[in-house]
Design brief:
Layout: E1 4-8, H1 21-25, E2 29-33, E3 49-52, E4 56-60, E5 81-84, H2 88-101, H3 109-118, E6 122-124, E7 129-133, H4 141-150, E8 155-160, H5 167-178, E9 182-190, H6 194-201, H7 204-209, E10 213-221, E11 225-229, E12 232-236, H8 242-246, E13 250-256, H9 258-273, E14 275-277, H10 280-285, H11 289-317
Parallel strand pairs: 1-2, 8-9, 9-10
Antiparallel strand pairs: 3-4, 4-5, 6-7, 7-13, 8-11, 10-14, 11-12, 12-13
């Protein structure tokens, strides 16, 4: 039996030195992707994936941590994932292998190897489209696929823990709503990253005016990533913010599956019922200049400074 575990250098920084001792003594292998170093600290592996024997795979949004223990309603963070079988797991296993080989993230081998291999990991399987993404690799495949799906969409449901959408995505959502489609965004009410929440709220007004419905999940911290566009399902690790779409290594799948979309719809509707729906008129009246200023600062930091800093580090490594 061959067991490999790959963790991100930043995400696992608080683990004690002997945390993996029992696994390694039993013959398992543990790798750290992009070990912490100031000259590349901005570039992180945000993927969440488990593959068993290339026959069974789990593509999820959640991490393995104490805060995820629970149902996300009465306790623990709210999150979700997909269990995939068929030919998809072997392609997901290949994406893991590529990350494993590039884990040291050293110039020139790690980065150049990654650039040459990840481009090919945009695979259409018989049941799913696998989208493995990372910085410096051209346009984001998930963002592009979602925009294509929205062109003729009539019913859109999106769950996003960290929502700071690009101009093109905002415009696409507004167009769906204005032509008579229904667009609903289920976003975080309780959050572990207030800066991201503030930045995302800067866009509520324009989206609400276009007819987009917005609600904030109330029971627990929302960490899920899900998009239902008519009969297609998008799920995985990527948020709809600048870091996920432009900096992190992310993994998403798209499945045009009506039965799965119906399962997702039921989950969405149950969580929507637990959320606080934002009223457009009250939102327009109830926000002070100080709140709007804070949102503008948060937006600048996340969509300008963070991207600039990460791209600067990436150029130095190239």
């Amino acid at each position: 039996m061959w067991v490999r575990v790959l963790v991100d250098g930043f995400g696992s920084k608080e683990l004690p030195a002997d945390y993996w001792r029992e696994l390694t003594e039993a013959g398992g292998c543990v790798g750290v992707f992009n070990p912490l170093a100031l000259d590349r600290i901005a570039i992180r592996n945000h993927r969440k994936l488990m593959v068993v024997d290339e026959a069974l795979s789990f593509v999820v949004g959640f991490n393995i941590a104490p805060e995820y223990v629970g149902d996300g309603v009465t306790r623990g963070w709210r999150d979700l994932g997909l269990v995939l079988r068929g030919d998809t797991p072997k392609h997901l296993a290949a994406s893991f292998d590529e990350m494993w080989e590039a884990r040291a993230f050293r110039h020139p081998y790690g980065l150049r190897f990654w650039f040459s291999t990840l481009r090919r990991r945009l695979v259409a399987c018989s049941s799913a489209e696998v989208m493995a993404m990372g910085p410096g690799l051209g346009r984001n495949a998930f963002h592009a696929s979602l925009l294509r799906s929205l062109r003729r969409a009539r019913n859109v449901r999106i769950v996003s823990a960290y929502f700071v959408p690009s101009f093109r995505l905002r415009r696409a959502l507004q167009r769906v709503a204005r032509r008579g489609g229904r667009v609903r965004l289920l976003l975080a009410g309780k959050t572990d990253v207030p800066l991201v929440q503030a930045a995302g709220r800067a866009f509520y007004g324009a989206l609400l005016q276009a007819g987009v419905e917005i609600a904030e999940y109330q029971p627990q911290v929302l960490h899920a990533k899900l998009a239902l566009v008519d009969g297609a399902v998008f799920a995985g690790s990527s948020n709809l913010d600048a870091r996920s779409l432009g900096i992190n290594y992310e993994l998403m799948v798209r499945l045009p599956d009506a039965a799965l979309a119906e399962q997702g719809r039921k989950i969405f509707e149950a969580d929507w019922a637990r959320a606080r729906v934002i009223d457009a008129a009250q939102w327009a009246r109830g926000r002070s200049w100080l709140t709007r200023w804070r949102e503008s600062v948060a937006l600048f930091l996340l969509t300008r400074f963070d991207l600039w800093f990460a791209r600067r580090q990436l150029r130095r490594l190239s």
